[in-house]
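Agenda item 2: S-adenosylmethionine complex prediction
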Amino acid sequence: MVATLSQLYKPNHDEAARQRFIGVLKSFANGSLEEQLAERYEQVLKKNFELEVGHSPADRSEARSLFEADPLYQLWGSMVFTSQGLMWETVGSTCKRIKDLFEARAQRVTVNPRGTLSLNPSLEIPEPIASTEIHRQPGGYFASTGPNDLKTALIYFGTLELYRAAKGLTAHAPVGEPGIGRFVMQVAKRDFPNLRPLRILELGCGTGIDTIALKEAYPDAEVHGLDLSAPFVKFAHAWAEESGVILHFKQADAQATGYPDGYFDLIVSHILFHETWHNIAPKIFSEARRLLISGGVFLNADVPYQPARLTIPKQVTNDWQVRNNGEPFWTGFADTDVPSILRDAGFKDNEVFSYYEPLGIGYYYFFGGQKK
Ligand SMILES: C[S@@+](CC[C@H](N)C(=O)[O-])C[C@H]1O[C@@H](n2cnc3c(N)ncnc32)[C@H](O)[C@@H]1O
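Presented output:
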């Protein structure tokens, strides 16, 4: 029997053991070690600072040097940095092993597609994302050695699977389960119960796994996914065809998508904007408003790291990610007043919304606008 794409993505015994170890290491560093660091700040670092300066640190920039001199913080930083490097290395070895078979299968399932794929080889990838290795992914989002090369996408996908396994989500759910897409669609249906979208667009759809959940939620809608990265949308197209779901993928910049005015009823994104710089996000917001039909909804889910919600240790560790771990816009996004940028981009006061939505032990920051 011929293996499908999801069957082909299968770490072998040793790879799976290494991936589990990395998942546990990451959970330890980001969980209990960070908690110990927070305690150390309360009990030692803050008190020392107060004795010396006369007040407690007001924000991350005042607190950073305190942490940098502390051995527990140094241990935390080296563990997070190392586990990230190990993650790419280990997932990379699985992907290298299965790459040829995976690409051959992707070719095969896209011979007579029911959905579409539109590539733009002359697309200018905006800086700084063009030359940034986001999350320290080797080669970034755009590395490609040829028209059939899916390695960049396969590795990104592999790390999504590693995180799902670390959260215990893979035991009963298939490879590539579109869990986050389903979550975003639940929020869409709850908050906009009268919406009956004919056309839906996902901006920054990445490998398109979650785009499948949009079609699941609104089976009669025409569903599109758009991303800057050619390997990502090629992967997304093959994955959708293999899954028997009709989707339309396009390599394009969300600032200038090329669709007509009022083409979509619902535009969504997941973790796009914390990787989208100050000069770019407003252009994407105004493009989204142009693309919406009257009554249409722009709904985005992203990281909830606005400093007012965070303790000082969390502000410092987030900022560490910016400087050391390939998350160059985390704090830039967190410091941005998103609703005001939505308004500057053309959404009216009574159209804009933003709120925090719980998921598991954390939250997502939802924001956007309903065009009146
Ligand atoms: C963190 S990934 C998220 C991908 C996917 N939504 C997910 O949840 O896995 C951010 C994605 O946004 C894409 N992206 C960033 N800037 C973009 C832009 N200006 N236009 C279109 N896509 C963009 C990147 O190529 C990347 O695939």
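Discussion summary: The mean pLDDT is 96.
Owner for follow-up: CH.
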